[in-house]
Each structure stands twice: as C-alpha cells, then as structure tokens.
Amino acid sequence: MADLQRRFPNEPEYLQAVEEVLTSIEDVYNEHPEFERYNLVERLCIPDRIFAFRVSWVDDKGKVQNNMGYRIQHNNAIGPYKGGIRFHASVNLSILKFLAFEQTFKNSLTTLAMGGAKGGSDFSPRGKSDMEVMRFCQAFIAELWRQIGPDTDVPAGDIGVGAREVGYMYGMYKKMARENTGTFTGKGLEFGGSLIRPEATGYGNVYFLLNMLATRGIDIKGKRVAISGSGNVATYTAKKLLELGAKVITMSDSDGCIYVPDGLTEEQLDYIFRLKNFYRGRISEFAEEYGCEYVSRGTPWCYPCDIAMPSATQNELNGDDARTLLANGCIAVSEGANMPSTPEAIKEFIAARILYAPGKAANAGGVSVSGLEMAQNAQKITWTADEVDQKLRGIMAEIHHECEVFGKEEDGYINYVKGANTAGFMKVATAMMAQGIL
Ligand code: NDP
Ligand code: 2IT
C-alpha cells in the first residue's frame, strides 16, 4: 500500500479501493507464499494498460470542444477485458482506475469469463442536445475503436452512458471495424442487445438483498427502503422492490433528494422513469408535481428506513450517514453503486453486524447480464426475458454463496466484504499464476 501511495499520490479513489481489497484478503494471501514470490498483488493492482486521448467535437453553436477520453484495461486473466464507460464531469484517472480494479473482482465473482476494464470521459451529457451527444460519442469511438473488440475488450454503460450513448458508440464502432459481432453490451434489442440488461443491475441487487435477508429469515414485504440516485440502477431497483411489496421512500439526483414516507406508487415511479429517461429532467420536478418533501443538496440517509440501497455514485454515504442509518434502525445495506460507502461507513456497518453487501457483489447483476449478452451474440441467438432473469437469479445466488463460504466469521456473521474480495481475488490470482509473468 505504501508503495502504491508513493507512486500514485493523486489517486485517492484508486488507493481507497485497493486498500479495501488488500486488507480483507490478508489471511488467504498469507496461506500462499508463491503469490509473494511472483509479486502477484502488485501485478494485480496496477492496470495492464491505460489509453488516454483527446476527444474533439463540434457543439451546436459550431464551437470546437475538447474532452479527455480514457480506457483502462485492468486485467484479462480470466476473460476479455469487460466494463462500462462513464461520461461525467468528475471523471479522471483515479476514478476510472478504481472502477476498473473493482470490476476485475466483480467480474470474477459472476461465474462468467470476463476480465476487468473501465473507460470514460469528463464529457457530461447533461444539458447537451442529442446531436451533440452523438458527435461526442462518434469522436470518442473514432479514437477508441482500435483497442476494443468482441474477444479483446467489450465496453458497456455506466453513469451518463445509457441506451442512447451505447447506440451511438456501437454504431460508430461497427462503421470503423466493419464487423457486427456485438462489441458493446447494453445495445438496443433490435441490434443484438439482451432482454433484461437494462433491468439487470437493479433487479440483481434486489435478488442479492433477498438472499441476505433469507439468512436471517426476514421478509422484504412492507420494508421501507431508502434509494439514492434516479438513474438506471436506482429506477430498476425501485421497480423490483415495488413488485415485491416493499416501500421506496426516497430517490435523489446530484441536486437533491425526495422523501415519500408512505412509499412511491407505481404511477409515481413511472413518472420518475419518464422524467429521467425521456425529458432528462430533475428529481425536484417530481416534488413539484406530487407535492412531496424535497431537500436541495439533501441525501436519503437522514430518513428512518429498514434498508438502504445507495445507487448513485462513489463515497456518497459517509461515517455520519452510517451512524444515522444505524440509529434509525437500518438492518441492511446493499450497494447498487460502486464504492458508495466510505471506509468509515463500512466499518460502522460491520461493527453493528447488520447485513452489508459491497457493490462488487450486490451490483454484479449488470455485468453478469452483459456476459449473457456476449454469449447470445457469439451464438447469434436470443434468449427470452424469463431465461435471462432465471440465469440472473442463479448468478446472484451463487455470488451470495461464495460470499458466505469465504466471509463467514467465528460468530457466524457473514462479512460480505471479506467474502466477495477473497472469492474474487482467488480466482484471478490462480489464473494469473497458471499463465506466467505477462
Ligand atoms: P445513471 O447515469 O443512469 O444514473 C446516475 C444517478 O446518480 C443519477 O440520478 C445521477 O444524478 C446520480 N449521480 C451521479 N453522480 C452523482 C454525484 N456525483 N452526486 C450525486 N448524485 C450523482 O447511472 P447508473 O444508474 O448506471 O449508475 C449508478 C451507479 O451504479 C454508479 O456508481 C455505477 O458505477 C453503478 N453501476 C452501474 C451499472 C449499470 O449497469 N449501469 C452496473 C453496476 C454498477 P444526476 O442525474 O443529477 O447526474
Ligand atoms: O460497474 C459496472 O459493473 C457496470 N457499469 C456494468 C459493466 C458492464 O460491462 O456491463
């Protein structure tokens, strides 16, 4: 850790993600002296390669704009590089390196053959016209297309990258590469996308939560759930929760948070979905429409809830938030976002022995169905929604089982952080050992 801190002092998110994994795999690492001899951990922490490039595009006023573009190919020991693309003003190397590092362990947990990667740009689609977004996506891929392919590196969506952006990027990729093999997941259904991929991260998180609750014999029905975010992950998490009779009491965006103490109705959730996906509006507009509480700059963690599902961004839930949630009786936290809880918050949850699932386990449903999309593309077939949903449920149950096997502590508590990190690490480490120094 000290060595990485010295070499990458300006990358706090990356160092945070690495430290969490390294501290929780200590026991199993010490059982394998050969890892030390082959300097395996350092090879696993430092990405295989990083592409960084300028993306120049023309806005609607005819002005030339320049953004940075990146792709981090972190590790391909168990399969082709795989991971999303993030478009957000905050994107930098530290954030993408943490996401690519996390993705490697997450993908290892999915049971499918995928390595880890992440990419993105400091371009923000917010406030841009469709044509501006298209021109940006084309310029981004004009540079990146050489580095990706169906068996080398398969990108997908993340913050700021949904069906629209994937469509534009895939279109440009296809034109440049002159092939139709489905390099990109989260594509439209008409051109190789998989049923249930849009729903997969949110649904998968709820399936994981159900597995956790089952270990304590707790029913989801009637439980009050605080969700942050109102994007892809948040809305499909809410949809599945409503289906199961739980109450979704909060949603948010980067401007503020709404609070609906009796829980959102299906009609209200549908309004949010349309507001965010078609009108690209703000969550404050929901509060105006339905007259509910809205706190500008607020987050969901101050409201009494049984379950918290942070589904917006990294480090959005800190130690104080965790203590408030616990004081209000929260019994479970299942992360839709990547690394939403700070290290201090995680310590609080584990010390309180509540059910706590880190993102790399709980949100792995998204990339799992991406893996299923790749499998369908390779065979040139499509599975039904029910087939994909059944496979997703099976994968989430298997990830939960792995966490249980590797994370159970002496008092019977399942430490999902330790379980997910150890299970994810061992598979990648074993594959790297077998393949030599590369
Ligand atoms: P979206 O762009 O669809 O939605 C993101 C949501 O989070 C929006 O409501 C956005 O608000 C909010 N948000 C983004 N940045 C911030 C911020 N800095 N502070 C507060 N709120 C913020 O993205 P997704 O739903 O796809 O992604 C959400 C999280 O889930 C991310 O952490 C992502 O890495 C993770 N994830 C996504 C997967 C997927 O399949 N899409 C798979 C696994 C994990 P606003 O509209 O104001 O920006
Ligand atoms: O963080 C993630 O797992 C994603 N954004 C989804 C990645 C993917 O390749 O589907």
What spatial order of strands do you see in the largest sheet?
9-8-7-6-10-11-12
CATH superfamily of the domain at 200-357: NAD(P)-binding Rossmann-like Domain
CATH topology of the domain at 200-357: Rossmann fold
Alpha carbon gyration radius: 21 Å
Name of the top-level CATH class of the domain at 200-357: Alpha Beta
Order of helices and strands: HHHHHEEEHEHEHHEHEEHHEEHEHEHHHH
Poorly predicted segments: none
Number of strands: 12
Derived from helix and strand composition plus strand pairing, the structural class reads alpha/beta
SSE layout and pairings?
Layout: H1 2-7, H2 12-24, H3 26-30, H4 33-37, H5 40-45, E1 49-58, E2 64-75, E3 81-87, H6 93-109, E4 116-121, H7 130-144, E5 153-156, H8 163-177, H9 197-214, E6 224-227, H10 232-243, E7 247-253, E8 256-259, H11 266-277, H12 284-290, E9 293-296, E10 307-309, H13 319-327, E11 332-334, H14 343-351, E12 355-357, H15 359-362, H16 365-379, H17 385-407, H18 416-435
Parallel strand pairs: 3-4, 3-5, 6-7, 6-10, 10-11, 11-12
Antiparallel strand pairs: 1-2, 2-4, 7-8, 8-9
This protein binds NADPH dihydro-nicotinamide-adenine-dinucleotide phosphate and (2Z)-2-iminopentanedioic acid.
